[in-house]
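pasting for the record
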Amino acid sequence: RQTVASGPSEPVNTATNWRLDTIVLDAGHGGNDHGAVANGTSDKEVAIGVVRRLGRMIESELGIRVVYTRHGDEFHTLRERGRIANREGGKLFISVHANAAGSSRAYGTETFFLAPHRSKTAREVMERENSVIELESDPSLYADFDDEGGILRSLAMSAYQEESQLLATLVEREFTNAGRHSRGVKQAPFIVLWAASMPAVLVETGFITNPDEARFLASADGQEKTARAIFRAVEAYKEQYERGLRL
């Protein structure tokens, strides 16, 4: 992981270092990793559709540079997604997914930030999204990731946690304003968020195991509305950030 140190003779340009100039958008899954598949669509298809629309909104309406962890249907490891974000100087990381459940009645959005999980359902989502490492060539690379260990506890106490929680809260607020059912802000130890050294959230846009939500999320209109809600949250976050209200 990259660290940056500045000596006493090197003044730090705070305005430049902290300007919200790059947002990294991560469309979950890709390639041979479909994520959840149900009702004629998949996690990876919903994710890329929403991310492409969200990226265009951020670039054209906020003038912020957008970096994508994947542009098409290719596979990247969870660690590589974080490396892309860090290498490109990301100031914000948003990972987009579609949810799944054993019951077709489950519905609604939920947004996660990095911290130890506090509920059984949060653990189930975390285990499903983290299970992609089984498709990677060297799962042992994640041996130092331990949701009960010192690494996660130190990260959970970092400055990024509060900013991540703020963004997650804004995302769920905007979903509610858009007429979606919000299941709330939750916390869990997602590897993809751990790999990104910046405020980061994982957005579950709805349950494709629910026929109604699957139709909505698979449609161009549904993906546009979903992207617009996340965009409004980013816009609100940017306004607070630039007013000097970084937590």
